[in-house]
TrEMBL record:
Its main location: membrane. GO terms for cellular component: plasma membrane. This is Heme exporter protein B. The chain crosses the membrane at residues 28-46, 58-76, 112-129, 135-158, 165-186, 201-225. It is found in: Cell inner membrane. The gene is ccmB. Keywords: Cell inner membrane, Cell membrane, Cytochrome c-type biogenesis, Membrane, Transmembrane, Transmembrane helix, Transport. One of its GO terms (biological process) is cytochrome complex assembly. It is a multi-pass membrane protein.
């Protein structure tokens, strides 16, 4: 591997982090949506602590999935509009690594804040404190999967008419296994069953998505700029 490639990869990630700090509305909007959507469930389901505790794994994971979708339509779209995507493609990084850098930046600016917000939301829903590490570990894997799949889908619909409508239709079916395994691990931990197999399956899903999604996203970026 060219010695300059790691430096270029870090530079692209750092650029996106600086842009996210400068324009923090996307991150703030995703976190506020996550908290507010989770807070609506007790109003709809009623104040029963036992019901909320039983529903909490699904509530947290569904809200995290939907919140992670919010910034995806701008993941590559703003760069395509102002021409900076062409510069990134000419920077010397392979398109797959350009896509991977954007996905990593998306996780750092969206997935990581969702992890921080997940703990108070889980406590509000009545999850026992001993299962919080399992929740956070599962969400760390799951939000990384969502960033990879979301970045791949965002590159595929890049430049398409009504791409913002197509994006959730592509992401939601592909992200369903992560939702199932993550919620199942948390539910198993609450009932005293073994939660490790579900997290291992989630980790395997991440291991499969890590090489495949950037390759597919790189092909989408190449097609968009050409």
């Amino acid at each position: 591997m060219n010695a300059s490639i790691p430096a270029l990869l870090a530079a692209v990630i750092g650029r996106d982090l600086r842009l996210a700090v400068r324009h923090g509305a996307d991150t703030l909007g995703a976190v506020l949506f996550f908290i507010l959507a989770g807070a609506l469930f007790p109003l709809a389901l009623g104040p029963s602590p036992e019901l909320l505790r039983r529903m909490a794994p699904g509530i947290v994971w569904v809200c995290a999935l939907l919140a992670a979708l919010l910034p995806l339509d701008r993941l590559f779209g703003s760069e395509l509009e102002d021409g900076s995507l062409d510069q990134l493609m000419l920077s010397g990084l392979p398109p797959a690594l350009v896509a991977l850098a954007k996905m990593v930046a998306h996780w750092l600016t969206t997935g990581l804040p969702l992890l921080v917000a997940a703990a108070p939301l889980a406590i509000m829903l009545g999850l026992p404190l001993p299962v919080l590490p399992i929740l956070l570990g599962g969400l760390a894997l799951g939000t990384a999967v969502l960033s990879l799949i979301g970045g791949m889908a965002a590159s595929i619909v890049l430049g398409a008419r009504r791409g913002g409508v197509l994006l959730p239709l592509l992401v939601l079916p592909l992200a369903t296994p992560a939702l199932i395994f993550g919620a199942a691990a948390l539910d198993a931990a609450q009932t005293g069953l073994s939660w490790a197999p579900d997290l291992e399956l989630l980790g395997a899903f991440l291991a499969a998505a890590l090489p495949l999604c950037p390759l597919a996203a790189g092909a989408g970026l190449r097609a968009a700029v050409e």
